[in-house]
Amino acid sequence: MQNTENNLNQTKSQINHAADLYSRPASNICLLAVSKRKPSGDIREAYRCGQRDFGENYLQEAQQKIQDLADLDICWHFIGAIQSNKTKVIAENFDWVHCVDRLKIAKRLSEQRPDSLPPLNICIQVNVDLEDTKGGIALEQLPALSQQISQLPNIRLRGLMAIPAPSDSVESQRKPFAKLREAFEEMQKNAIECDTLSMGMSQDIEAAVAEGSTLIRIGTAIFGERL
Ligand SMILES: *Cc1c(COP(=O)(O)O)cnc(C)c1O
C-alpha cells in the first residue's frame, strides 16, 4: 500500500523549500491534490492527513466521489476540459473551476450557480506557449475576457491558470510562468481583484513558486501512478 501521508509531507516540504528559496511565505501557496482516477478511499485518507483541496478532471467520477465524501469539508476544484452541456453539474458541485477559456462557459456557470451557494471561484486558463493541442486563450485575449467575466454575478474571477509545455531547467520553466504572472499583475492594475495564480505541477514546483504561484496542482506524487 502506498503511503499517502508520507507523499503529502514530501510534496509539502518541496513547496516549503521552494518558498524559502524565493523568500515567500509558504502559507500563500495552496497544495491542490489532484485525485482523478483515484478512489474515494484515497481522498478520505489524504483528508485524514489534513489535505482539504482536491482537483478532479472527469465529471462523472467526480460526482460519485463528491457524493461518497459529502460528510467531509472538502474544497472541490474542477480542473478538466469543460463542455458547455456540462456546466450545470460543475456549477452545482464544485467550489472552483480552473480551465475557463470562453465567455459562453463563464456565463453558463454564472447562470447555473445555485443561489444557495457562494459565488463559484474561476480561473481563466491561458495557453502561454500557444500549443494548439491545449485549452486556454492567447494572452492578447485576456484583457477583454477578464473584464467581461469579472462582471458576471454568481462567479468570482480569482486569477489565471496555465499548463506550460514541459522543459527541463528551472530557468526555462520560469519563462512561461513569468508571462502568466505579468498578465496577472496587469489584471490587478486594471482593477480586477484577483489573488490566484494556478501554476506548477510536480516537475516545475520551484519555477512556479519563483514566479509567484499561489496554487500548485499535484497528483501522482501524492496518490501514485494512475491506471
Ligand atoms: C492531472 C493534472 C495534474 C496532476 O498531474 P500529475 O502529473 O499527476 O501530478 C495537474 N493539473 C492538471 C490540469 C491535471 O489535469
Approximate strand percentage? 15-25%
CATH topology: TIM Barrel
CATH C-level class is Alpha Beta
CATH homolog superfamily: Alanine racemase
Number of strands: 8
DSSP summary: helix tally: 9
Mean pLDDT: 96
Helical proportion, percent range: 40-55%
User: What's the gyration radius in Å?
Assistant: 17 Å
The span between the termini is 15 Å
What strand line-up does the widest sheet have?
A: 7-6-5-4-3-2-1-8
- The name of the CATH architecture is Alpha-Beta Barrel
Count of the separate structural domains: 1
Structural class by sheet pairing and helices: alpha/beta
Give the SSE order as H and E letters: HEHEHEHEHEHEHEHEH
Bound molecules: pyridoxal-5'-phosphate
- Largest sheet, if any? 8 strands, parallel
List low-pLDDT spans. Answer: none
* Net shape: globular
Question: How would you portray this structure in words?
Answer:
The chain has one domain (2-223): Alpha-Beta Barrel (TIM Barrel), CATH 3.20.20.10. Helix content is 41%, strand content 17%. The chain has an eight-stranded parallel β-sheet. The chain is of the alpha/beta class and 227 residues long. The mean pLDDT is 96. It binds pyridoxal-5'-phosphate (PLP). Residues 34, 36, 57, 79, 163, 201-202, 217-221 line the site of pyridoxal-5'-phosphate.
